Amino acid sequence: MSITQLLLICLSVWRLSHFLSDVNEDGPYDIAHKVRSLTGVKYNEFSEPYGTNVVSKAILCVWCSSFWFGLVGAIVYAISYQDWRGSIWLPMATSGFSVIVETWVKRD
């Protein structure tokens, strides 16, 4: 795995995690809002999202969803490049990268 491939996988995992967890971003045709609604995300009287089940709580959390997107990315990489050795650590690496980027983006 090259550094470029790793960086692209890490950035795509962060982008997907951030896209689904950020309630201010609905995407084209409100696709993120529809996915959040289908998984059980509800809104209180102050328009703040909350999860009604495990999946909806995980989607609202970049730290949680980045691991699962990283796992999917690792499986896709392993199947595409027939490199299972490099895929073992990939979910943790992409999740860690996503957490660092999300912390940097959300800083005040």
Task: Outline the structure in words.
The chain has 108 residues and is mainly alpha-helical. The chain has one domain. The protein has helices at 3-21, 31-39, 54-59, 62-81, 90-106; strands at residues 41-43, 49-51. A hairpin with a 5-residue loop joins strand 1 (41-43) and strand 2 (49-51). The N and C termini lie far apart (35 Å).
Keyword list:
5 helices, single chain, mainly alpha, 66% helix, 6% strand, 2 strands, 108 residues, two-stranded antiparallel sheet
Structural class: mainly alpha
What is the share of helical residues? 55-70%
Contiguous uncertain segments of 5+ residues: none
Total beta strands: 2
The residue-averaged pLDDT reads 87
Number of helices, counting only DSSP H or I runs of 4 residues or more: 5
Q: Mind sketching the topology for me?
A:
Layout: H1 3-21, H2 31-39, E1 41-43, E2 49-51, H3 54-59, H4 62-81, H5 90-106
Antiparallel strand pairs: 1-2
